[in-house]
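Q: Structure tokens for this one, please.
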Amino acid sequence: MVNEIKRFRDLGKIEKAWCVEVAARLHEELIPEGFLVSLGPTFLKLFYEDVGLSPHSDVLYSLSSENDHSERVLGFISISTDTKKFNRWLLFKRAYRYMRPSIFLALINPRALNLVRLFFRRSDVAVSQEATDHFDSEVINFCVHSKAQGKGVAGKLYEASLCLLTDSGKKKLRIETGENQQAAINFYVKHNAVFERTLVSHSGKKSRLFSMELT
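A: Here is the predicted structure, written as tokens:
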């Protein structure tokens, strides 16, 4: 399968728009039980755009040569090069972008505002975890289209992200994946990630924490 890896910030305006759209859809399809999905597609699109634009994070896309843009995105990996700074950047410089979808969510379901508050409190958890384990980078999300799985797309995206982090001087990567995402767990183990421990979220869901030494 012919594909190339491109950073979000290097894409043209039109390419950025459809990459964000497809990334949000892939996230909904592959991580349906995830916290971000509960906030709706508009939140997801804004979030992935911000991850790609922030000076403290990046998104790498695997693109095929298909003419239909909905078929071009084979997968993506989003990473933070400084989780603490990324979350603060999101809170203090980009929060205004989420006001309209937040109001819409509140009109549909007032309880949804609690989810919005939790979204902007991610930094508290991340900073605490980072301080404990000395991580200086993190995999935010990693999705590969079902048609591209098992064809080397995930490996190329992951390796490209490791190269980017290494070139940025990062030393230790934080990886968290759901307890029930066995394919992801197998992938990280295969690529020499080290299992650290099991985590339990605010909702009681379990996930596995891995680390990766960067050289």
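A few notes: The beta strands are 4-7, 57-63, 73-80, 137-144, 172-178, 194-200, 206-213. The mean pLDDT is 84.
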